[in-house]
Amino acid sequence: MKSLYLNYRFLYLLLSYPLISCEPEPIEVCNTDQQSLYQRYDFPVGVAIEPPHTTEPIVQTQFNSITPSNRFKPEFIHPQEKTFYWHHADLLVDYALANEKRLHAHTLIWHEQLPIWMENFQGSKSDWEAMMKHHISTIVKRYKGKVQAWDVINEAFLEDGTLRPNIWLKNIGSSYIEKAFQYAHEADPEALLFYNDFNLSFRPTKRKAVLDLMTNLKLRGVPIHGIGMQSHISTIFPSDQDFISTMEKITQAGFKLHISELDISVNSISKEKFELTDEMLQRQAQRYRFIFNNYQRIEKQYQHGITIWGVSDGESWIPNYFGREDYPLLFDEFFNPKPAYCGLIK
C-alpha cells in the first residue's frame, strides 16, 4: 500500500504503550444477513479493492463506494510513456457502474509506484508540465462522468510540514500541486478533487501545513474540494481527542472530509506470533464505532464518507509490509464478520 516511512515506524512504536481505560461493552456476534453496512449510515461507506473483489459478495452487499487500491496508480495505468493500460481500471469502473457504487479513484500524482520511464523522464519545466498534464488529462477524460472523485495529489508533505522532495517538485516546483488540480478539473469539471495524506491526526505541524496550502489554493480559485485523512491507526493511537480535532479542523476550513484509508491495528511492533484475544477484538470494535459515530455528527455537506482499506484481514497490507501479524479490518481471513463489523451495524 505504501513505501516505507519512518513516521509509520514511529506510529507503530507507540502502539505498544498500554491502554488505560474501562473495559468496552461486549459486542455480540452477528452475520452479514442482518443488515447492510452502507444502509446503516447516511454517508458513503467504502472499501479499497482489487479486480478479484468484484466477485466477492461482501463488497456487493456491504459497501456503496469503492476505491481501487492500486490499479489507478501510475505504474499500473501508465506503464510506458506512450502506452496506457486500461484493462483493470476499466473492469473496476464497469463494476461500480453496473452495481451503482460510487468510485473514488486513487491516485493521479504520487512520489511512489511510478513507472521507470516517468522517473527517468528528461526535459525542461514546460516539458514536465506537459507530461504531467497528459498523464492526468488522459486518465480523467477517459472516466469522465464515471469516476465521481479523485485523489489528485497523494502525500506531498513531510512530517515537518515541508514539501516532500520528489520528481514533481524537483522538475516543476511547488506549483505542480496547483497545476495537477487544474488539469484534473479541466478534464472533468464535475468530479470532486481531493488531497490525500497520512498522520494528520497526530502531526500538528504537518496538518497545519496541509491545511494552509490547500486553503490558500482554494481561495485563489484552485478546484480543491476535499481532504483525505488516511487513518492507519490502532486501538490506542492516536488519541480520540486528536482524531476528532483533526476532523473538525478539516471541515471548519471548508473541505469535504474523506476518512480515506481506515484500518485499526490490534498488534504492536512485535513480529513474534501472538494470540488474538476477544479483548483485542472488542477494543478494535469500539474504536471503529467511535470513528463512525463521530463522523456521522459532522455537517452533511462535508461528509464524503469513510473507506476501509481492504476487505479482509487475510488481504491487509500490514502483515506483508511490516512482517508481523495483524488483523485490522472488519472481516477475518475467511470473510467472516468480526466484532468490528457487528459493532457498526448494531
Automatic annotation (TrEMBL):
Chemical reaction(s) catalysed: Endohydrolysis of (1->4)-beta-D-xylosidic linkages in xylans
Stored SUPFAM superfamilies: (Trans)glycosidases (SSF51445)
Molecular functions per Gene Ontology: endo-1,4-beta-xylanase activity
InterPro entries on file: GH (IPR017853), GH10 (IPR044846), GH10_AS (IPR031158), GH10_dom (IPR001000)
Record-listed E.C. numbers: 3.2.1.8
Domain GH10: 31-346
Matches recorded under SMART domains: Glyco_10
Keywords attached to this entry: Carbohydrate metabolism, Glycosidase, Hydrolase, Polysaccharide degradation, Signal, Xylan degradation
Presence of keyword Iron: no
Active site: E261 (nucleophile)
Example GO BP: xylan catabolic process
Family: Belongs to the glycosyl hydrolase 10 (cellulase F) family.
Name of the protein: Beta-xylanase
Classification lineage: Bacteria, Pseudomonadati, Bacteroidota, Cytophagia, Cytophagales
